[in-house]
Amino acid sequence: MSSEPPPPPPQPPTHQASVGLLDTPRARERSPSPLRGNVVPSPLPTRRTRTFSATVRASQGPVYKGVCKCFCRSKGHGFITPADGGPDIFLHISDVEGEYVPVEGDEVTYKMCSIPPKNEKLQAVEVVITHLAPGTKHETWSGHVISS
């Protein structure tokens, strides 16, 4: 048997540098993520996410006429009021054809496609502005502003 006292228990470090508080922050390597910045991906079928069969069905359908009720470029969507009446039709930015951003009052032609998963509502696809609303400023997708 040894008469040596047991070693003292380890003490927590008291100097900030010894616990890493003064270390410079290291750049954290992150993989690119399509969801970064967005909490939940949009469930709306854009031109890129629409199935081929839904695109074919929509392109074979009739052409409708309507008036742009509203469109928000920053949000990427808006609504069309059908010329023959009925509920407003959803419009996604990826389905707008041509060089101009739609604004309220623009006359448009479009085809319709159902919105999954329930397929109860409709959205406008292949939207073409036929007449620019008079007296309004129109913006091209590249950012040029034109008065009509």
UniProtKB/TrEMBL annotation:
This is Calcium regulated heat stable protein 1. It comes from Jaculus jaculus. SUPFAM superfamilies: Nucleic acid-binding proteins (SSF50249). The lineage of its organism: Eukaryota, Metazoa, Chordata, Craniata, Vertebrata. GO terms for molecular function: mRNA 3'-UTR binding. CDD domains: CSP_CDS. Coiled coil: none annotated. Residues 63-129 form the CSD domain. Pfam families: CSD. InterPro entries: Ca-reg_mRNA-binding_domain, CSD, CSD_CS, CSP_DNA-bd, NA-bd_OB-fold. Residues 1-52 are annotated as: Disordered. One of its GO terms (biological process) is regulation of mRNA stability. One of its GO terms (cellular component) is cytoplasmic exosome (RNase complex). Residues 1-13 have a biased composition (Pro residues). Keywords: Phosphoprotein, RNA-binding.
